[in-house]
Amino acid sequence: MILADAELELVPKELQDHPSVIKNAKRRRKTPSKLLLDSSLHRSAFKDKAEALRRGRPDIVQFFLSLCLDSIPNAEGKLTTMVHTRNNELIEVSPDLRMPRSHNRFVGLMEELFDKGQVPDKKPLMRITKNTTLEGVLKKVKSETTICFAPDGELVETVSLFEDLKGPIACIIGGFPEGDYSSPAKELSDRIVSISPHTLKVWTVASNILVSYNQSQKTYK
Ligand SMILES: C[S@@+](CC[C@H](N)C(=O)[O-])C[C@H]1O[C@@H](n2cnc3c(N)ncnc32)[C@H](O)[C@@H]1O
């Protein structure tokens, strides 16, 4: 499972002087440059309306990781979970990572990850690598089939989709709330599929994929 172009980043330099950021930094006793950008706190810092609606969504990453890591395919050792960010960073996540349930603890963990490169200190279960494009992520994954999930893709029924495929499958979901992929996710994929005529939230798509994949495997056994 690859969350691509995820809206996860530290507060960018040009927003670090904004009162909403300074207030948040003071409250958390951190420097603005070490804070995770969060649209629920920093939206007023953006001058551009489209950027304000799209950037700073750590909650999407938290939901995605919680769903993947607590899924049946992960428990059965059949899942690799990765996050590719808007700034071309790759976050590799161990299947053994236990996700914090509270949003504040998740934010703290991700800030530590950006700061130190890996967390936790003693036995790292999450690692971030800079300068990794989505193409680089897919080269690393070496999947047999790459599927891009998008509302404008070919409408499919997910269980049958997975039943028809053999070997490792890379499923790409966009980790953003608005707009389209900024990486060439569609061009890099073998198929572009839609699971509903509606535009869905990331967690709805991720949960559908995880359950359908599990079901398709059970049908085969
Ligand atoms: C909230 S959507 C982003 C909205 C955006 N307007 C778009 O066109 O993708 C986030 C991601 O969820 C997935 N998604 C949303 N609706 C989908 C659908 N009907 N079928 C497949 N994937 C979908 C896609 O991977 C998308 O990038």
Structural class: alpha/beta
| Largest sheet: spatial strand order | 4-5-3-2-1-7-6-8
CATH superfamily of the largest domain: SPOUT methyltransferase, trefoil knot domain
The helix content is 25-40%
Report the end-to-end length measured between terminal Cα atoms.
22 Å
SS summary, helix count: 9
Reported by name, the CATH topology of the largest domain is Alpha/beta knot
Strand content: 15-25%
- State mean pLDDT (0 to 100 scale): 96
What about the largest sheet?
8 strands, mixed
Question: What's the number of domains?
Answer: 2
The CATH first-level class of the largest domain comes to Alpha Beta
Ions, cofactors and other ligands present here are: S-adenosylmethionine
The succession of helices and strands, N to C, reads EHHHHHEEHEEHEHEEH
Beta strands, count: 8
What features would you highlight for this structure?
single chain, 221 residues, alpha/beta, Alpha/beta knot, 9 helices, 8 strands, binds S-adenosylmethionine
What does this structure look like?
The structure is a single chain. 38% of the residues lie in helices and 19% in strands. It is of the alpha/beta class and 221 residues long. It folds into two domains: 48 residues, no CATH class; 159 residues, SPOUT methyltransferase, trefoil knot domain (Alpha/beta knot). The chain has an eight-stranded mixed β-sheet with strand order 4-5-3-2-1-7-6-8, sandwiched between helices. The chain starts with a strand and ends with a helix. The protein is globular, with a radius of gyration of 18 Å. The mean pLDDT is 96. The chain contains nine helices and eight strands.
